[in-house]
Specification:
This protein is an alpha+beta fold. The chain folds into 2 domains: about 35 residues; about 60 residues, no CATH class. About 45% of the residues lie in helices and about 10% in strands. Keywords: Hydrolase.
Length: about 110
């Protein structure tokens, strides 16, 4: 995911290495250990995943896999907002607010 982001913002090879190193230092783990699918089963915090079917930057299959891996997660699909316009959808904003202010409901 970090490499995909580095490519998206057009970082060169050297900048990408520095970016990854800084992320490792920030979280205190090597990138090899930052696999959310592997870490998810041990995370009990409720997780809300929202993914648009038109997202051309991150495949929908990744959020589906995360939803299956996290023991307390909910996945909401949208259509027509792509990757970066989700918060323009009032229903998405409402769902986020409700999720953060209510008991978890899978």
């Amino acid at each position: 995911m970090l490499s995909r982001f580095a490519r998206f913002v057009n970082l060169g090879e050297r900048s990408e290495r520095l970016f990854v190193r800084d992320m490792e230092e920030t979280v205190g783990l090597s990138v090899d250990r930052l696999d959310l699918i592997a870490l998810a089963p041990g995370i009990e915090v409720p997780v809300l995943l929202i993914h648009d079917d038109s997202d051309s930057e991150v495949p929908v299959t990744e959020s589906v896999a995360l939803n299956e891996a996290f023991p307390r997660s909910r996945l909401t699909h949208t259509t027509g907002y792509g990757h970066s316009r989700l918060l323009r959808n009032p229903e998405v904003v409402r769902e986020i607010v409700e999720f953060t202010h209510s008991p978890f409901r899978p």
